[in-house]
Structure formats: C-alpha cells, structure tokens
Amino acid sequence: MKKFLSIAGCILIAVLTGCDGVPDGQSDKIKIVCTAFPEYDWVREITGNPDNIEITYLLGNGADMHSYQPSMNDIIKISTCDLFIHTGGESDSWTDNVISQAKNKDITVLNMLEILGNSVKIEELKEGMQSDEPGDTAEYDEHVWLSLDNAVNLCDVITDTLCEIDPGNSAEYRENLSVYRQELENLDNQYAETLSGISNKTLIFGDRFPFRYLVDDYGLDYFAVFSGCSAETEASFETITFLADKVDELGIDTIFTIEGSDDSVAKAIISGTTTQNQKISVLDSIQSVTSHQISGGITYLSIMKSNLETLKEVLS
User: Fold this and answer.
1) What are 50-80's pLDDT values in tens digits?
2) Which distant-in-sequence residues (6+ apart) come within 8 Å of 24 by Cβ?
3) Cα separation of 139 and 187, whole Å?
4) For residues 180 and 178, what is the distance between their CA atoms, to the nearest angstrom?
C-alpha cells in the first residue's frame, strides 16, 4: 500500500506542477523510456541512437527489478514520453497507475508479456525448490529476454512501433533491425549447436532461477533454490540437502548463481556434498545492468555471448 501511495503522490505533484522533465531546446525529441536493460539496448540498436531520439533506462543504478520503486523524476519521464516499454508482470504492477495518469495522453505503451502472449511461461515450483509464502499464486516468468527467439519477436514489434511514431526514419530503423536480427539469430544458432552436443544437460542453481526461457529453448534441465521472481532469501535445510544430494547423484562439479549473489546459499550446497569441491560460476540474468557497465560497452548480445561461453566451459 505504501508503494501505491508514493507513486500516486508523485503523479499528483507532476500534474500539479506541470513539470515535463525535458530540458529547454529538446522538446522536439522523441522520448522513449524503458524499465529493463534489454529493452533499452534493443531500442539503441534499432534506432542507431540518433540525435532526435532520447532514450531513458530507469534501472541504470543497478536496482533489482523485483523491488524497484520509481522516483518522482522517473514518473515524470514516463508521464511525458512518447513510447514506454516495460516488461509487464508482477514487478511492473506499479506502471498501470502511472500510465493511466500520464500527462501525455497519446503515449504508446509496449508490454513485453502482452506482446509475447501464449509464449509467456508461468513460473514453476521445481522439485526440491524453496516455495514462497503459502497461498501465493503462480506468476508469469518476467525474464522473457533470456530467450533469443523472444528477443527477435520483441525487436520486430519495437521496430514496427518506432516506424509508426517516426515514419520519416522508418527505412533506417528497418535496416538496423535487419542487421541486428541476423546477429540475434546467429547467436541463437550458436547456442543450439553448442548445447545440443553436451552430455550433462542439468544446471544446479544455488540462487533464484530466472533462466527458464533459456533452458527450455535448448533442452536443458535444472534444479534451483528459488524461482526467478521469488522474494525468499533464506533456504531451508531440506532444500539445501536436496540440491546437495542432486549434485552428488549427477556428478556435477559447478554450482551456478546469478549476478550480484553473495554465494552463501551456493556454498551451503557445496558443503553438503560428498566431495565439497564444486566451483561456483555466474550466469548473468541481465536484470541488474548499471549505467557504468553501459558506458563500458556492455550490451545485451555481449552478455548473452558470455553466458554461452560459461555454459560451454562448465557443461562440456
């Protein structure tokens, strides 16, 4: 309830003050706001980031998308933008109120879960996984960008939308999409070829597991402590024991975590195995990319390529 009130208050302030959050001399720019890094990076690739486009990435401070709360400035940017792209799902529930009261009544909104429709997966409670609080309902898995096939489909829709908003540059947008689409499809083929030839197709995650789209795409299996959108942080003895036994049973030598993990749960699993000599390796879920990393040249494709190299090294 506190989260709703703070957002509603920010919207009211923005409306009453008439702030548009746009510096002088830039009102003619097409303003695009993205909640997650993949959306932001796809827009950069499709548009070529020209001078007439202003792209805002809201989670540039590295905030976790599952606990993110927009600031007043974030809400003003959304309220006055031309195109708002967000993931959808439980973590983005705050966007409904912001969009409904947006200052720009002609705002175009792209919800990635809605675009993908029946391709969206429900989070599953895998065998041995720590469950959330009793009575919690199943949620959609929001990490749709971890499927390269989804990325291709979403980039197609983003491009169509940009061409409608800015028809004068549609030819350039479609040309950029064609080049980028080929890169996505090439990497998808590399994943398929690399992962089809491995004998060990099971991942053990001592962490949340946001990679269901990826493992389903390439025929991998997994066991994990928490689901991808879980708010739980403490793993039970039963969960740790189950996963440690699974490591022994399958002869697995690496426990995976996601970026930003303190590795404590993974280490607990390792301590429960027979050999206690497993390594810890990181797969990047691309949900905590910072502005500093972007300045350093990181991209959606570079992270997905790095994840493939990690899987190749661990599973081969």
Assistant:
1) 889 999 999 888 777 777 888 899 999 999 9
2) none
3) 29
4) 6
